[in-house]
Amino acid sequence: MSVVIEARDVTFAFGQTPALRGASVAVEAGEILAIMGPSGSGKSTLLHCLAGILVPDSGEISFAGARLDTLAETQRSSLRRDRFGFVFQFGQLVPELTAVENVALPLLLSGVRRTSALERAKAWFARLGLDGLEERRSGELSGGQAQRVALARGLVAEPQLLFADEPTGALDSLTGEQVMDLLVSAAREQGTTVILVTHEARIAAYADREVMVRDGRVNAPDRIVS
Amino acid sequence: MIAFGLRLAVAGGREALTRLVVIAAAVAVGSGLLLTTLAGVNAVNAQLTRYAAVYPNASTAGSADPLWWSTRDDYFHGQQIVRIDVAGTGPDAPTPAGVPSTPGPGEFYASPALRELLAAHPADQLADRYPGRDLGTVGPAGLPSPDTLLAIVGGTPDAVRALPHARQVSNVGDTPALPEATVDLILGVIAGGLLFPVLIFIGTATRLSAARREQRFAAMRLVGATPRQIATVAAVEAAAAAVAGTAVGFGLFYAFRSPLAASRSPVCRSSPPTCRWVCWTSCSWRSACRPARRWRRGSRCAGSGSHRWASPAGSPPPPRARTG
């Protein structure tokens, strides 16, 4: 299998506080990788650098064989819109939009016609057990429902990569497992590569492989989970 | 993106609509106040210009034939009647504002309000004060307010020269009462005292929604909205509130413009000190202290029809040409 995204000796600091100190990791196409680590270890920062949300201070990020960290903001936005999907813990749905509009948002931003975008978005509601919730706004959804809407939005554009940062962090264990089941099955069905940040071993168990981040570095050796 | 931004602003649920309405209301108040302020300053300036035409300064430059002029106050049943006696000294003498020609001896013009008063009372009570030929009605350009009781009476130069406060004038009603710098000063004071709080209101209303806007834009950035798309949405949202607020502000202004105009001087009616200050500024610039003294002695406040300023202690009673 080919490497789809890779970080090499990435460093990043928030002001004077270093978050990454030479982190390196490679993810293969179709793989589900869990990035684990204690709070403040730099695992979310590493995910944000891989996704092009943050630009590393030094080191390289490559996606599909091309440098990602040197791209302009507009190009990185385009990548996030067309090639990447995101499921985060909090605040990812636009409160003014209905659930179906939130799912269709990446398509609308890409210039897909509204009716077509909403049609494609609606297909995900049945798939993720969200029937009847299309017209609700985020404030009218439960945590699990909102997270499934976010998952649908992350996958609606059929991205190559799905970034999930503590996707079950705000959910109870049962709802969290349901969301993870849906995430993993949908990703496998689409052949989407998943990079999953979590501090829970139970959630990391859904991954093909896990790496541990400590003090801003990715610890080797990687361990194959399944 | 424009349609999407409008969708977010207008159809984004009750909270988004409330946010839009609050910001639009703040903008409406601001634009309405601004329009009213500009209209008020303009109205006061126009009114003072007309007062200046009723009480012109003595001047002999600019015309080969000056006009003899005497302005006096008359009273009838407690109502003030302004009587202007004029006499041309030659064919180039200026014409009083609001009338087509200078009345000759034995001729007069009357304002619409005075004409009604003349018709409503027997001649021996009022009309006999203005004997001679009635040439017509004084037009708006010669009246500080529509209900001003005013007569322009013609006489001979010798007769007018002998009247109290007689002077020679060579220009009548062709100079604005307030210079541009004064208008700027008035606008500055009003902007500071009145519009600044409204701006704070608009800023507060906008800041109240800042957190939610940040959340919205962060969510959009996450799924790949470009900075330009975010800027477009933000601009459309702001423009929607601004356009709606400005439209409402204009609507309110036009809705209240007629009642304000009917009050003849909104600034004076609502704020006598402001009026006093405006009048003082005008008089200082014009060096026309006599009108100011007349107003202080009890004439109407720039046509408000409702305010009378107290007579200073020891000041003489208002001049009366004849008692009514």
From TrEMBL, chain A:
Source domain of life: Bacteria
Occurrences of domain ABC transporter (ranges): 5-224
Stretches of the chain forming a coiled coil according to its record: none
Keywords: ATP-binding, Nucleotide-binding, Transport
Entry-linked Pfam families: ABC_tran
UniProt key word ATP-binding: yes
Keyword ATP-binding listed: yes
InterPro entries xref list: AAA+_ATPase, ABC_transporter-like_ATP-bd, ABC_transporter-like_CS, ABC_transpr_LolD-like, MacB-like_ATP-bd, P-loop_NTPase
SMART domains per UniProt: AAA (SM00382)
GO molecular function: ATP binding
Protein name: ABC transporter ATP-binding protein
Native source species: Micromonospora tarensis
